[in-house]
Write a structure and sequence with these properties.
0% strand; 241 residues; 10 helices; single chain
């Protein structure tokens, strides 16, 4: 496998931090790890991050299941399917360079979304549209969270974590199955994800201990800044070749 021990160690550190943030505020694994891992070694993203997100979101949804809000989740999940199919279409014409550009653009757009004060009304149309966008970005860049997070940004921490985790869990199943059927998941992707699982577990356990003890929302500015820097670096690498 074309990954050095140093690259693996750096990736583990990134996954620990990404899982810690997502476990604390409801999202963050993809928006942080995808650009960072892409810079460390292109083979390490975006699919390994996608595979890692599945057990994390399931664990989070179960941990705070009493706070799950089912209202509106149906439209979001229905939108994930056509979004995943559109994402597969984009992947069919993607080179590594265009994939890097799409990932970087998705991260920067996500940072802009999460930094804005704009409020999006929650109704069937906006929830379905958000589901489609989430399906596309989840398939192409392994980060379907930011579009959905925009709809729930004014909710309480437990409700955001629980509801988004439930939506992400089902959405990730759709995305992973679509990638498998299309032959878009390799053995290397699976091996890398397995090697990074200890980092995921460490970040999740730490987030469970921090909840209620520290202001976990303090992680948000940090992850937005670091993700922006990583995405900008990835974009520059893609443009300069």
């Amino acid at each position: 496998m074309p990954v050095s021990p140093i690259e693996l160690l750096l990736a583990l550190v990134a996954v620990v931090f990404g899982a810690l943030v997502q476990g604390s505020i409801g999202l963050g694994l993809g928006i942080f790890t995808v650009p960072v891992l892409s810079l460390i070694n292109p083979i390490m993203a975006p699919v390994p991050s996608l595979l890692l997100a599945a057990p994390l979101t399931v664990a989070m949804a179960w941990r705070e299941r009493s706070h799950i809000e089912l209202s509106g989740a149906g439209f979001l999940l229905v939108g994930r399917l056509p979004g995943a199919l559109l994402g597969l279409g984009l992947l069919a014409v993607a080179t590594q360079r265009t994939l890097d550009i799409w990932i970087a653009a998705s991260v920067l757009a996500a940072v802009a979304i999460l930094s804005t004060r704009i409020k999006v009304p929650r109704n069937g149309a906006t929830e379905f549209t958000t589901g489609v966008l989430s399906g596309i970005t989840g398939m192409v860049a392994s980060m379907g969270g930011p579009p959905a997070a925009l709809l729930f940004k004014d909710e309480t921490g437990p409700k955001i974590r629980a509801t988004l985790s439930m939506v992400f869990s089902v959405g990730l199943i759709i995305t992973v199955l679509a990638r498998l059927l299309a032959g878009r998941i390799t053995v290397d992707d699976i091996v890398i994800a397995v090697l990074l699982l200890p980092g995921l577990a460490a970040g999740y356990v730490t987030s469970s201990r921090l909840r209620g003890r520290v202001d976990t929302m303090a992680f948000k500015p940090a992850i937005l800044v670091i993700s922006s820097i990583a995405a900008t670096g990835l974009l520059l690498r893609a443009i300069t070749g």
